[in-house]
Amino acid sequence: MILSNSSPELKSTDRSLLERAGLSESEADAPEENGKDCVVCQNGTVNWVLLPCRHTCLCDGCVRYFQRCPMCRQFVQESFALRGQREHDRDRLKTL
């Protein structure tokens, strides 16, 4: 889950980002559960929401190379990770 157990301010920020992307908290967990692969490299797990188009299609490795969404070609004004790298690594270790 994207919402952290730390401060209320961080929880509010996380919720705000999810709302701006048009996602609910339960949808934020979807990439790991669905095993979606990055549309560019086809290897990495999708972890980034691109705004304003709201496409969730890039992994941590590919997101830095795109100024336009690879799905709709709209300019990316902002983006955010659904899961932090530490959470991703911790969950990956659990499955091994």
From TrEMBL:
Classification via InterPro entries: CGRF1 (IPR042496), Znf_RING (IPR001841), Znf_RING/FYVE/PHD (IPR013083)
Q: What is this protein called?
A: Cell growth regulator with RING finger domain protein 1
Q: Where is the RING-type domain?
A: 38-73
| Domain of life of the native organism | Eukaryota
Feature: compositional bias, Polar residues = 1-10
Please state the protein's primary subcellular location.
endoplasmic reticulum
A single MF term (Gene Ontology): zinc ion binding
Q: What does this protein do?
A: Able to inhibit growth in several cell lines.
List locations, semicolon-separated.
Endoplasmic reticulum; Nucleus
Choose one Gene Ontology CC annotation of this protein and give it: endoplasmic reticulum
Keywords, A to Z?
Cell cycle, Endoplasmic reticulum, Growth arrest, Metal-binding, Nucleus, Zinc, Zinc-finger
The source organism is Molossus molossus
Ranges where the record places region Disordered: 1-35
Q: Which GO terms describe its biological process?
A: negative regulation of cell growth; regulation of cell cycle
Q: Which Pfam families does the annotation name?
A: zf-C3HC4_3 (PF13920)
